[in-house]
Design goal:
Blueprint (H helix, E strand, L loop, with lengths): L13 H14 L13 E5 L6 H12 L2 E5 L1 H4 L6 H15 L3 E5 L2 H4 L9 H17 L8 E7 L7 H6 L2 E4 L5 H15 L8 H9 L6 H22 L17 H8 L9 H13 L4
Parallel strand pairs: 1-4, 1-5, 2-3, 3-4
Helix pairs in contact: 1-2, 4-6, 8-9, 8-10, 10-11
């Protein structure tokens, strides 16, 4: 359940803010007391596939904190009272393994706006989770526990949850420079031939991927790599005849051009992208 390995650091200007306000206070809690202590709740929000989970893992790895990842399916039980018990156990273990970062993905599914005819099970679950989040702020001085929530729908969050997630960070779609870095990193780390694209090709490709998320770009790289794979298998007359991974040729710019005919970005609506900027301004987000 705990995660301590360093993930790929997200290429993103918010890193400096997160390092100063979250990572450093976790690393040196004795220097960050009172008003300078680490925030107990953080909300990462933005379009799907922008790397919110990766960003949370990076914060944990950079600060040496244990990483506890929670999804709605992992914590909601059909048995009466078991969900509340699981929530209590999670926070108890996280506090014991301090410093800890509890990452709640799709937090709007757990702490969505209260409805007029909400069932008792949902109400108890929300109250228990909010109560445990309140308890985080009263941890003793030598215990550091930070709750990080992630969502694509911040407008669906209950106001009580938003108040507890006092630091709110918009994780936007990658800009041109971030797209260049991401493409190069994926090719160098996950393809046999590394990145053989020229700077001009890399720039040309990055300019074509405006409004593409990190997840979309990785899907494009996978599609481009399939052309190298298929060509190599055909060349050797079947997968059983391919001598080694080194036989696969590097992914070329033409492979990406062909892949662009098949792969499409998941978030292209100007209205949906504008929504995140407006929500950030309305709720004091970075």
């Amino acid at each position: 359940m705990a995660w301590r390995c360093a993930p790929c650091v997200p290429a993103n200007s918010r890193r400096s803010f997160l390092r100063d306000k979250i990572i450093n206070p976790i690393l040196r809690p004795e220097l960050h007391v009172g008003l300078h202590q680490a925030p107990r709740g953080i909300l990462l929000f933005g379009p799907p596939g922008t790397g919110k989970t990766t960003l949370a893992k990076w914060m944990a790895a950079s600060s040496g904190a244990s990483f506890f990842e929670v999804t709605p399916s992992s914590i909601i039980s059909k048995f009466h009272g078991e969900t509340e018990t699981l929530i209590k156990a999670l926070f108890k273990v996280a506090e014991a393994d301090s410093p800890s970062l509890v990452f709640i993905d799709e937090i709007d599914s757990l702490l969505g706006k209260r409805r007029e005819k909400e069932d008792d099970t949902s109400i108890r679950m929300k109250n228990q989770l909010l109560q445990m989040m309140d308890g985080v702020s009263s941890c003793s001085g030598d215990k550091v526990l930070v709750v990080v929530g992630a969502t694509n729908r911040p407008d669906m969050l209950d106001e009580a949850a938003i108040r507890r997630l006092s630091k709110r960070v918009l994780v936007p779609l990658p800009d041109f420079d971030a797209r260049r870095v991401l493409i190069r990193t994926v090719l160098e780390k996950q393809s046999t031939g590394g990145c053989t694209l020229s700077d001009q090709e890399l720039g040309d490709l990055s300019s074509r991927l405006e409004k593409w998320s990190g997840s979309d770009i990785r899907s494009l790289c996978v599609s481009a790599s399939e052309r190298s794979y298929d060509e190599t298998v055909a060349k050797f007359g079947g997968i059983q005849n391919v001598p080694s991974r080194a036989a696969f040729r590097p992914i070329s710019f033409s492979d990406f051009l062909a892949a662009l005919e098949e792969v499409r970005p998941s978030c292209t609506s100007e209205e949906s992208l504008r929504f995140f900027d407006e929500w950030a301004k309305a709720h004091g987000a970075l």
